[in-house]
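A protein record in our archive is deliberately plain, so that people and models can read it alike. The record that follows is passed on verbatim for readers who wish to inspect the format.
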Amino acid sequence: MVFAVGVPIMMSEFAIGRRSRLSPIGALRETGGPRWSVLGYVFVATGCLILAYYAVIAGWTLRYMLEAMLSGFATDPGAYYDRTTTGVGAVLYHIVFMAVTISIVIGGVKAGIERVSLVLMPVLFVLIVGLAVWALSLEGAGAGYGFYLKPTLNEFFSASTLAAAASQAFFSLSLGMGAMLTYASYLSRDENLPSSAVAISMSDFGVAFFAGLVVFPVMFAFGLSGQIITGEIGEGRALGALFVSLPRAFLEMGAAGRVVGLVFFVALFVGALTSAISLLEVVTSSLIDSWRLDRLQAALGAGIVIMILGVPSAYDQNVLGLFDAVAGEFLLVVGAFFLALFVGWRMSDPISELRKGFGSEGLLHAWLWAVRVLIPIVLAIVIFDRGKNVVQTIHSVFGGS
């Protein structure tokens, strides 16, 4: 899904962003007319909703990182998770994380975002690869590799698996919310956009793949695989694996586990911070373009509103789950669907924006065909599946009332 759908959609966002030199709302108005600015507002709203709950989870990551550094992991990770991921403490860490994100975005693209990313992204990759190499040494890790890498074909071809993969690809690549469109508005006219899209997607996929080479061997090596296979952690099994099962494994490792656990949560925090910066930049740049605010006013104002919007998720994980289902799984795909229709059928000569530095005219026409026909069909199926998931989540949160 990353390469078949994610790369073409990223190229689409790049084409709009660089041609217009504007953030999502202005860019779609400029290239498609006033009606298409509505899609830009959807992008900005989606980014706000995602960052609101994402910053709560990132706050947990910050807390675990500091705990590993200062006192080590709690002796009962499950109880600690239940105690610290909701309530006043969760709100405070959410606020601290948002404050860090806001301060970086206020610094601007060059002095803030680019400077931080040039340091943090290589650090993230080195930490993840180092942890994956370490995981090779664990006794029993082979079963984890088998579980992770051996395909189950009947699951592979199920609609729900493909829909979940598409949602994850868009979330991980920051597509369908205008982030890549916004970053492209800062690129030079000489930038090879197709090559950049492939490089970004390969880097993103590489980090995710190596993260799996850490998590699953650790889970199986320390006898925690049943929680994945039987679904013991329930709907929050991914969060449970990160914040309950892995700390339990790090505890069993003794003193070395504290070091490994610290490195793991530092990597997790770095990944969360760089993603949050992208989300806030979408909203900030839109306020700068549409309301003519300066960067300080836009980043601070947007950050505070999003910080407040995230407080309910810090008090109730059901609210967090609802935000994730609506924005993180559904609206991202809806945004990408209409973006594909816009670029394929409304935008004038989108290929011309991608031609610079790219030699294959045939591949560019194949890209346009995919964006016009193939990708909308795939995304329509995903929207239907994720829509059902949203309805189920709403029913679960509100008890069918």
Notes: Residues 361-398 form the longest helix (38 residues). DSSP finds 19 helices and no strands in the chain.
